[in-house]
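Revision sheet: structure tokens.
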Amino acid sequence: MCQIAFEIPDEVLYDNKMSRRDALDFARRATALHFYATKGVSLGYCAQIAGMDKEDFIYFLGQNGVSIFHFDDEAEFAEEMNNA
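Predicted:
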């Protein structure tokens, strides 16, 4: 497992009323959201990165306007709907 570290000035945490744990959770979830939204990483891995189970991560995606469904174009979506 890879670990990544970066620095956030204490003033930023103070101004945003965030603890170090809050900042870590925020960074993990933001990273997972980005990876999922750009289709780079699976739902399961993104949930793991975010420190959530899959159900909670799906809910988190919805809260952030990210669909769990990925279609390349309208025709692919229409075909999927016809097959449902």
